[in-house]
# Entry
Amino acid sequence: VTDNLLSPALKEVGLRWASGQGSVAEEHFFGFYLRNKLGARFHHRSQTQSGPRILLACLPQDLHEIGLLLFALDACDHGFQTILLGANMPLEELPAAVSKTGSAALVLSGVIEPSKRVITEQLPRLVNALSVPVFLGGSIAANNFDQLRKSGVRVIGNDIETGIKQIASTLEFRQ
# Structure
């Protein structure tokens, strides 16, 4: 469903908006609908996961959390315990959240290009403040690959399955 229906539909809505064929209202309606449906699925997911706990959040100023929700649901299906913080998360609050939740990794999502300061200052500071790996997926991962790698962030790109495999490998978790 994610690969054949939701991801293509999300791309289409984004392309329609970017080309002027669609409106902000159309994008917001579709996003709100999907967020509600996926959020309900996330809320009612099985609680039997016994794998590593991972904390998930969007970068500051990024309100596009549908991809993060899809990632969280798939990670649950692969046995990870997921804690979802959602959109527009201040990076300086994440070390305390990782500590309080006992998370084995932090997974960030970025669709909207953040300020250069986020990439060059805040993310490296976050990586240095944590004793767990920091992963970043979404379209900004490809656009800032070299700078992100220099900061110590582990880039997982746009493909959910590949990202989950990378995290599982890093955490030595056999799914």
Notes: Helices lie at 2-19, 24-43, 66-77, 94-101, 116-129, 139-143, 145-151, 160-170. The longest helix spans residues 24-43.
